[in-house]
Design brief:
The protein is an alpha/beta fold. The chain has two domains: 56 residues, Roll (2,3-Dihydroxybiphenyl 1,2-Dioxygenase, domain 1); 70 residues, 2,3-Dihydroxybiphenyl 1,2-Dioxygenase, domain 1, CATH 3.10.180. It is built from two helices and eight strands; from the N terminus they run βαββββαβββ. The chain has a four-stranded mixed β-sheet with strand order 1-4-3-2, covered by helices on one side. The protein has a four-stranded mixed β-sheet with strand order 5-8-7-6, covered by helices on one side. A hairpin with a 5-residue loop joins strand 7 and strand 8. The radius of gyration is 15 Å and the shape is globular. It starts with 8 loop residues before the first strand and ends with a strand.
Length: 128
């Protein structure tokens, strides 16, 4: 077994770095850190992810399926504001759901696509 300390970053494949940077940084509000010719580094609080230019087509989910996705926590008030914001920006909401009971992640979740059809989730945990 390897004793890991945490997550350094994860990567989201994109077909157009400029468009992806505009969506993630300018539209959604993630913090721009730096970029090089094939990557844009962004952060969310103390966590980092990298928008990386993909040389292959990106289509992780058929239609409006959302099993393959990346999730970000938001507070309850921000969740409600996020739903309104996505609608205002004409960003299609795939699903808005609420899970309770023995689910691993409970609370409210909204799923939507980025410009490359990667699915993102904003999650309002009910576990305080």
């Amino acid at each position: 077994m390897i004793n890991m300390k945490g997550l350094t970053h994860f990567t989201i494949p994109v077909s157009d770095l400029k468009r992806a940077k505009e969506f993630y940084v300018d539209t959604l509000g993630f913090k721009f850190e730096r970029e090089n010719p094939h990557m844009v580094f962004v952060s969310c609080q103390d966590d980092f992810f990298v928008l990386t230019l993909s040389e292959t087509p990106i289509n992780p989910n058929q239609g409006d399926k959302h099993d393959i996705h990346t999730a970000f926590y938001v507070d309850a008030d921000e969740y409600d504001r996020a739903i309104a914001f996505l609608k205002e920006k004409n960003i299609h909401i795939i699903m808005d759901e609420e899970r309770h009971g023995d689910a691993t992640f409970t609370g409210r979740s909204v799923y939507f696509h980025d410009p490359d059809r990667n699915v993102l989730e904003f999650h309002d945990s009910d576990k305080g």
